[in-house]
Design goal:
By secondary structure, the protein is α/β, with parallel strands linked by helices. It folds into 2 domains: 200 residues, Medium-chain alcohol dehydrogenases, catalytic domain (Quinone Oxidoreductase, Chain A, domain 1), CATH 3.90.180.10; 135 residues, 3-Layer(aba) Sandwich (Rossmann fold). It is built from 12 helices and 15 strands. Strands 3, 4, 5, 6, 7, 14 and 15 form a 7-stranded mixed beta sheet that branches. The longest helix is centred in the middle third of the chain and has 12 residues. The chain is globular, with a radius of gyration of 20 Å. The termini are close together.
Length: 344
């Protein structure tokens, strides 16, 4: 099969690899039909993910058709269209039993990182009963494409904030994860959504689609003062940090009201510092982490019921044979594209 692999030094290439085979009877083989490029794929290429294994096929955000399933796989069958969870998890270890699947003792972020992922013609999915969710007939591949990663990440960020009815939630970063977090925060009862980004076009997009109620560009105004002006001088009831920069990390705690939650779902390439003397008395709760994508079935139901839609995030389409060009476009013009989709 053809697969896009990465090599140290920031290189990628289309190479021939053996078709994946069932290794354990809990595995399934997926024929990939649609995938996308994620910023974390770029992190691997740039050397910011030490555990990533050189020579593996990149990609972890995809949908496909079950080509073959092991004898122990019960929830899906050959021929099913499925959304793939970006997290590999066993469902049985101490962490999985408590729904902390990102910390699975037998899995974690493996697809496209430590094992071959989505940017290949076929992919092996360990623990397929957990990692695959059947797509309802009224949902297209595009509708389901982001369920296993960025939509789950946005949902996770909103869930971490413990949103109460009519809360004001501020989301830093109006990229794909940030927009998904805004959509999910609204579903969870947020009364006001404030979007913060330095990309004016993304902010306008969020406002025009009514994903955000208020938009703030830190390059045009003082963010802390602006947020307080919309929250009776208290600060946001919850902050979701989805930008991943030094500046956005500091902004997150500054705009949170005392006794609120700051949810960190961004992936950083540098260490961040908590200025505890300055924060003293704010009584903030910080929640951090990779996505615990345990709600794929629920998210597909919400999409099927037309309560959620994320296909607007696709801003460019490429064929699999053009995937190197697609990566270059995404890496060079990240601020232009939300998501680039690949058709197989």
């Amino acid at each position: 099969m053809k697969a896009l692999i990465w090599k140290k030094g920031g290189k990628i290439e289309l190479a021939e690899k053996p078709d994946p085979k069932i290794k354990k009877q809990t595995d399934a083989i997926i024929k990939v039909t649609r995938s996308s490029i994620c910023t974390s794929d770029l992190h691997i290429i740039h050397g910011a993910v030490p555990r990533a294994v050189e020579g593996k096929a990149l990609g972890h955000e995809f949908v496909g058709i079950v080509e073959k399933a092991g004898n122990c796989v019960k929830n899906i069958k050959e021929g099913d269209r499925v959304a793939v969870n970006c997290i590999t998890y066993c469902g049985e270890c101490w962490f999985c039993e408590r729904n902390y699947i990102n910390n699975c003792q037998n899995g974690g972020w493996e697809l496209g990182c430590t094992i071959d992922g989505a940017h290949a013609e076929y992919a092996r999915i360990p623990y397929a009963d957990k990692g695959l969710t059947k797509i309802p007939d009224n949902i297209s591949d595009d509708d389901a494409l982001f369920v296993g990663d960025i939509l789950s990440s946005g949902y996770f960020g909103a869930e971490l904030c413990e949103i109460k009815q009519n809360d004001t939630i501020t989301v830093i970063g109006a990229g794909p994860v940030g927009l998904c977090a805004m959509l999910c925060a609204r579903l969870m009862g947020a009364g006001k959504i404030i979007a913060i980004d330095i990309n004016e076009e993304r902010l306008k997009f969020a406002k025009e689609l009514q994903i955000a109620d208020i938009i703030i560009n830190p390059q045009a105004q003082n963010t802390e003062i602006a947020v307080k002006s919309h929250t009776s001088q208290r600060g946001a009831d919850g902050v979701i940090e989805a930008a991943g920069t030094n500046e956005s990390f500091q902004t997150a705690w500054k705009i949170a009201r005392p006794n609120s939650i700051v949810a960190i779902v961004a992936m950083y390439e540098e260490n961040q510092t908590l200025p505890l003397p300055q924060m003293y008395g704010k009584n903030l709760i910080f929640k951090t982490g990779g996505v615990d994508a345990i709600h794929c079935k629920k998210l597909l139901e919400l999409i099927s019921e037309r309560k959620l839609s994320t296909n607007f995030l696709i801003t460019a389409n490429y064929k699999f044979d053009e995937i190197i060009e697609a990566y270059k476009e995404f890496d060079t013009n990240k601020n232009t594209h939300f998501k680039i989709a690949i058709t197989y």
